[in-house]
Amino acid sequence: MVSTVTTSLVDVASSDATLRAFLHGLPGVDRVGADQRAAMLSTRSIKTTAKAEAIDLAISMVDLTTLEGADTAGKVKAMCTKAMYTAAGAPKVAAVCVYPDLVPVAVEALRGSGVKVASVATAFPSGRSSLEVKVSDTALAVAAGADEIDMVIDRGAFLSGDYVKVFEEIVAVKAACGDAHLKVILETGELATYDNVRRASWLAMIAGADFIKTSTGKVAPAATLPVTLVMLEAVRDFRAQTGRQVGVKPAGGIRTTKDAIKNLVLVNETVGEDWLNPDWFRLGASSLLNDLLMQRQKLATGRYAGPDYFTLD
């Protein structure tokens, strides 16, 4: 469904009333239709050469991620090595995503590789902190060398209808990013409805997001196909209205090659080839890469390797 919104975006956030009117004036999401379309596209079968190309494309889109309290410099260095040298003949991943204090470790390990360093910020994963702390968190990560910032919105503010607060926080964090790209995490598992996912997507894009991202990976459900479909429709309609392209990053629960390929089919059928590259579509994952590499080897040799053939995530 193509958006029929005609309101100019120049002044849409000038007041709470105009922003609320805009977001609630967006076309409603047909939940049944979205679920059915996502289910139908997930049955597409991709074989042989096309599957091999899809696997390499998916590898190139991975944000290889470790966001645990037990993360160490050694673990991050090992992950960076894996990000650069995935397998013989395979592409590098798009980025390595870590907590802000480990950004310097990742920057040094990835120097000159072309693999980006992404960092979560803004009181990840809850987003429950002051704007000053969120901006400082972001500025410190960027100063340490992060190429990309993954921020979380204040879901409490959004769900209570304080859209201006969410908008102003995104604008402030975007300013603190400088040249770094900003991915705005909606935490769709807490937004309850597809209409809220669409509203949050538009709110983030109007505020300046370079990417919209489904989830932190800490809340279930995370990156479901219908939710990703709604977000893809939002970026498609946003570009049609404004001329600006915004990326999409599903994250959380994407663990297998089948999951990754379902997402690639969804992208191709919803927004087209313009989004089928790492500049505009990412897969946030910690365990997905090993399965992609296992399936890649199976296609090349006809034999499955055990999961311990590759480094453990």
In terms of topology, how is this protein built?
Layout: H1 16-24, H2 31-41, H3 48-61, E1 62-65, H4 73-84, E2 95-98, H5 103-110, E3 116-121, H6 131-143, E4 148-152, H7 155-159, H8 163-177, E5 181-185, H9 194-206, E6 211-213, H10 225-242, E7 247-249, H11 257-270, E8 283-285, H12 288-301
Parallel strand pairs: 1-2, 1-8, 2-3, 3-4, 4-5, 5-6, 6-7
Helix pairs in contact: 2-10, 3-11, 3-12, 4-5, 6-8, 9-10, 10-11
What does this molecule look like?
The chain is α/β, with parallel strands linked by helices and 313 residues long. Helix content is 47%, strand content 11%. It has helices spanning 16-24, 31-41, 48-61, 73-84, 103-110, 131-143, 155-159, 163-177, 194-206, 225-242, 257-270, 288-301, and strands spanning 62-65, 95-98, 116-121, 148-152, 181-185, 211-213, 247-249, 283-285. It has an eight-stranded parallel beta sheet with strand order 7-6-5-4-3-2-1-8. It is globular and about 60 Å long. Mean pLDDT is 93; it is low at 1-7.
